[in-house]
Amino acid sequence: MIILRLIGESFRFASDALRQNKLRTMLSLLGITIGIFTIIFVFSAVDTLRNKLQSSIDKLGSKTVFIEKWPWGGFGDYPWWKYVNRPEPSLRDYNLLKDRLEYAQGVSFEASTSGRTVKYRSNSVEGANIRAVSQDFDKTWNLDFEDGRYFTENESRSGSPVVILGAEIADGLFSGNSAIGKSITVMGRRLTVVGVFKKEGEDMMGMSQDKNIIMPLNFAKGIMDVESERYGPTITVRGYEHIALEEIESEIRGAMRSIRRITPSAEEDFALNKSTIASNQLDQMFGMVNIGGWIIGGFSILVGGFGIANIMFVSVKERTNIIGIQKSLGAKNYFILLQFLFESVALCLLGGFFGLLLVYLLTLGLTYGAGFEMTLFMNNVVLGIGISVAIGMISGFWPAYAASRLDPVEAIRS
């Protein structure tokens, strides 16, 4: 009950100080407001971008490994000269690998080319991405169909002239009409549409099936060199969910070294890329942004903390005789200390509330005004409240301690 009474009196004193000295209090709270706004806005923006990028990375699959010539992360001190002479993943690698892996639920070979034009009668769509894939492509990627189906095993093996379209390609060619069974022209060849993917929309990393055209690998061999570096050949392996990624990666590494006859002491001539590499790079990048947000907002909060301390010293000075009366009536030192400490926390919470309100209004403006969906996450709200409470306690402790040590007789005389 004493704590509740203390909190009630402290909030009443804080509201009295705000009401009687509006300008002084608001100017002192401005530092806290700006600091909380800066830190929480930066964290909210980073978390929003991080979630959008992570959702893109998650499409790769947590148990998926990409066997490629180049390792991911080509920036900074990237030693490209170590990798430039590596061979590209080949069909021989693919055929031998899929027979040796026990932990893989799917192994696919993929080659792609972009910026192509596809036609259907008088309609055409530019900028299409052509992907030549082996039969297990549907086991290494999550595919959602709006209409039609995936390739049959016989179509993949015989290299049938069939194709699956992304939603944007299908809309551009057929204007909302059914595409199944229609013949389109791709790279000078006529192919029959057997499936259409669901519309996904482009994510932060530009990963989407909407502008893709998928054709069987054995058919694509007749119109392009699928093992050429210009088509970015990749072997994709998706492991079983109950198998640890490290075990899957270790099995792939051992099999690839055996297939390419790499001696135990020799360095590998292939890269095993996985989603965790991209996730770690995101963590490093956004970690630096978070530090910047703490530094920028920290200065504002530091200034705001001094402002709160100044208000509390003034409040102690103005209420010295009241403190003397309280102590003469039996109030303990801790009662006086907690009273001013709670008042300091109340003022900081008020500044933090205004900061969070500004962040919330800005997120609404960006979401509905600028078309960039941004979210104020609950953990950031809790963080803002926590920082406000911490600054209130730090800023208010010394003034509160000074008030609790006042001599009641001297205090009443003042």
TrEMBL record:
One of its GO terms (molecular function) is transmembrane transporter activity. It is found in: Cell membrane. This is Putative ABC transport system permease protein. The chain crosses the membrane at residues 27-46, 291-313, 334-361, 381-403. It comes from the Bacteria. The keyword Signal does not apply. It is a multi-pass membrane protein. It holds the Pfam family FtsX. Residues 295-408 form the ABC3 transporter permease C-terminal domain. InterPro entries: ABC3_permease_C, MacB_PCD, Macrolide_Exporter_MacB. Keywords: Cell membrane, Membrane, Transmembrane, Transmembrane helix. Residues 25-253 form the MacB-like periplasmic core domain. Coiled coil: none annotated. GO terms for cellular component: plasma membrane.
